[in-house]
Every structure is written in C-alpha cells, then in structure tokens.
Protein: DNA-directed RNA polymerases I and III subunit RPAC1
Amino acid sequence: MASTSTASSSQSSLPPSAFNPRRHVGVHAERVTDVSSTEYPGHYPDEDHSWDLAKFKENLRVEVKRLSQRSIEFDLVGVDASISNAFRRILIAEVPTIAIENVYVWNNTSVIHDEVLAHRIGLVPLNVDPTLFEFRDESNRQPTDRNTIVFKLQVECRVDTDTPKEKGAPKRYVNEIVRSGDLVWVPQGEQEAVMSHTKPGPTNKASRNIVLAKLRPGQEIEMDLHAIKGVGKEHAKWSPVATASYRLHPLIILKPDKPVPPEHAHKFAKCFSPGVIQVGPNGEISVDERSLRNESMSREVLRHKEFEGCVELKRIRDWFIFNVESEGPYKPQDLFAESIKVMRQKLTNIRQAAEALSADVDGAGVHPNGVATADGDVEMAGV
Structure:
C-alpha cells in the first residue's frame, strides 16, 4: 500500500500554530462545527486567557500575498472575526472618496432622461485625493474650492464632413458616443496649484472609456457637475472598492491511520481545487501547502464512501484571506491602512463619549465632542 503523508507541524511550511485544534473550524458534509473561539477566561481549567496586549502583538500578522495595480490579496492573522468584518465593512462603506453629487443640466436632447444620465455620471470613479477636501455637511453647504470639484460636460454630435467618404459607406458621426473621458475639469480657487500633479478625472484608462450616452446629429448634452466628498454608506458611488471580501484559510489534514487507496489517488485529487493535492508516481498523496489557500472547500471528497475517514477538512478560525479591488483614488496597498484610520477615529469617539458619560458636571456628562442631554445621554459624533 502506498504511503500517505499527513499534514503536521513538523513537516509543514505552515506555522506550527496553524495545527492547533483550538483554532480550527470543522467542515463536514452538512454542517460546520467549532465556529466560535473557546480561548477566553474560565473555559479551560488552570489556563489564563485574559486579553494581553503583548500576546496579541505576538500573534498578529499581516502579510501581502498578491499585489497588482487595482487589487490586493493579503492575510490578516490573529484577530477575531468581528474585527475582520469591521474592517471589511469600513472598506466598503466608510473610507471617503470624491464622487459627482450635483448635476446641473443646461441642455440634454439625447434619448436618455436627465435623471438616468445624472445617475450614470455619478458612478464614474474619480482620481481625486479625498484628503485635500472637506466634507459638505448641513453647516457647510456652500460650495467652495475646499469642498467641491467642478466638471463640465459639453458634447454635440454632428455628421463628419471632414473625412473623405467612400461610395456606399455609412455616414460617419463626430461625438456619437459620450464617454466619461469627455468630462472637463474646471479649476476653482487654488485647486489648479494644489492638484497640478494629477489632473482630476476618471481614475484610469478603463474608467475614461465608460459610455454615458449615444448621440445622433443635432443632439447635444451640456452640464455642470459638482463632485463632493462622501462615504459609501450614504451612496455606493462613494465606495472606494469594487469588492472587499475575506475567507478563512483552508486546512486539509490527511489521516495516517487510513491512507487513500492508490487506485483512487487521482479521483481523490480531483475532489479538490487544481494543484492542492499532489499524486506521486506510486499513488502516494500529499498536500501542496503553497496551493492550499486556493482550495474552495467544496466538500466533494465527503460525498465518496471510499474516502470516508481518510481526510479532515478544516478552516483556521483567525486566519483571514482578504481580497480587495480598488476602484477609486487609493492604491490597493493603501486601502487597509485607510480603514485602520477610520477604525481608530471610531474608537476615539467612543472613548470620548464614555468619558463624557462618567463625568459628573451639573448632573450630566459634558465633553467637547459629546453633547449631553438632560438625562445624561451623550451623542457620539461619527460613530
């Protein structure tokens, strides 16, 4: 019978802690088990699992696995799912960007209604650094060069009379397709000096070719567009990412007490994502841990009785594989850092509100950033 290697910390490229059963989520045919962490005070006798900053720093790890111009894949290890999910939600909904909000239509004789065209224009991603601008809130509604970017869209379609036409060829038109690249930035105040290094407009070549409308001779579009700073929880056009998701790191444990029969080795390998299971010349089975992160965990192997007891499917509870696609002014490698800034600000607001609640000034908590009510409640800004 062919020998079968088993995943163990002694022969693995994964860190030894990855094989700690306390970190594993069990993946079974019809259910998952051990989804919640048990490492908290009082669960294990004679073990202290109270939160410790030094231990947290030791276990925390962030490692970039893949980076391109528009996307990044990185591992976040050593945190609870609630923290990872908070970062995911912040990436989608709370990292600020600039998007077109106000559309002033002076002329639109195209077949697209003003509201539909304005909505399409608002979804065009812009390359403007949001740190250069302020939010426009209820107390600051007046457009200025510090909170508003102005674009102009003026396109008129006509018959092309300049290009020689071959006999029988169809008519050619000038400006028959209105694209996002037709947006023209109109500098206001000091904007031309501040943003001289990067001219505001769509983020990249692909977003400059977004079709906004199609025209025919005699049709024209003339608009003024005001772009402002916002966040994705107000409208998706301000979301800096096309997608931000995570999944738990897969783990495949081969059982040495019941090896896979060599005549079924290739069938066993086909139950997993390509490249995850390696089959030797004599039918021996091994796990390629460099490809293990690509495993889809389809559980196909659990459908076959001949493989029952040969393998255990796990996921590592605190090892998160993040995939983030940037669709805004941020480089992919900067997005996670921006989400950390937002998280830190949220924690600051909560701490200030808690301090305000604990203060005893005239029977109610007061704080510069916390407005106390008669019953002592405090409004938390920006949480």
